[in-house]
């Protein structure tokens, strides 16, 4: 019995194993059959990405920038600061006797390489890229495909939008078409092509994560209306194109969020300049080398649910609140008043500050615009003629020219700053920012330094500093007396136009 029972048990076990095996074998086949459609869809998507990359890549270029960094050292032991001086300039202030006693110190020049991307937008070689890549360049080299690098000419740069245009010589070059970035929707697939970490023609894919991003802490970029994407963007992608599924450019890849200072790679949050903004800048830079922007003349802030009821509006009302109107401005002449809420600009709804700023900035002075405001809960249609935008002034008080041309920004020396920085008992203005590669940086000025004099005249606040800089700029040179926390030193800065 025991033997018979064993045989029966074995037979039953075999049948069970075979049945289980057949079931396991049949279930995946059924699942695969059901998922064939999904796999085909993914396969087609992959082919679409491949087709876009193949078509667009020839027009994406590598950009290598060389910036000359001048470092100074002294061979004058009897001069306590050992700094480079401009002979003619110092003669104007100290006379010939100064140079009988001191001679010029030598300079060491070196190149600082920077790599990025760009893309050709015309058959004759015009290229769109980022200002932060080529704005301070002494030499720009462009690599098209497998061809040797060729030198490019910088046509124009616009720090406020971070757009720049360079040009190479050529005919019948491959180029990319520009799309309408306003038509782009959150959730759409996009591709980024560029040279991250020097790896040429790297293609990544993702979706549009958001539109209209602003408030990012990016130096000098005033007009922030970024497209956010999770397509992998890394250092070296700057200036490269963000493409839609038609293979057309919707943005210029510009910035990333890294998450940690020690890690500079992608974490899924990248930003691109909308191509519609880039188009406006491109056209003006090609035409004149500079960008002129319209100016409405209103202070603006977002309308929040808490503020809306105070203006007779529902909490869910969307618009931009006007807390102030500049006297004599286009806004005042059009009849806009403080307390108005702008809800429409030139036929398009307005919900956020950065939207209105960008739209005004993309119109030339003299353009007539229709504006709809809510005043006391009622809609009112007004017409304004935009004026020319005045020169931007930094919040710290220094004119934009100071940062752009000399490479530094300043603020008043407060009691707290004087105590923290060791400037108690001194007067002057504190350097709050120094642009890398700028005239100020090359001459050794650093953040936290105290500027005591401009052209041998004491400056006690930013107003006096502004006025002194403007006067000094007419001569092409600026003599600063700077305290670096240890001692005073005279430093000569040249305005770029007069080099």
How is this structure best described in words?
By secondary structure, the protein is α+β, with helices and mostly antiparallel strands. Among the domains are: 181-288, Trypsin-like serine proteases (Thrombin, subunit H, Beta Barrel), CATH 2.40.10; 294-388, PDZ domain (Pdz3 Domain), CATH 2.30.42; 400-498, Pdz3 Domain (Roll), CATH 2.30.42.10. It is 26% helix and 32% strand. It is built from eleven helices and 26 strands. The strands form five sheets. A six-stranded antiparallel beta barrel has the order 1-2-3-6-5-4. Strands 7-8-9-12-11-10 form a six-stranded antiparallel β-barrel. Strands 14, 15, 16, 17, 18 and 19 form a six-stranded antiparallel sheet that branches. Strand 2 (107-120) and strand 3 (126-130) form a beta hairpin. The protein starts with a helix and ends in a 5-residue tail after the last strand. Mean pLDDT is 81; it is low at 1-13, 20-27, 71-107 and 393-400.
Structural class: alpha+beta
CATH class of the domain at 181-288: Mainly Beta
Mean model confidence by pLDDT: 81
CA distance, first residue to last residue:
111 Å
What fraction of residues sit in β-strands?
25-35%
Number of DSSP helical runs: 11
Secondary structure: helix percent: 25-40%
Q: Which CATH architecture of the domain at 181-288 would you pick?
A: Beta Barrel
In quaternary terms, these chains amount to single chain
**Within the largest sheet, what's the order of strands?**
1-2-3-6-5-4
Net shape: globular
Largest sheet features: 6 strands, antiparallel, barrel
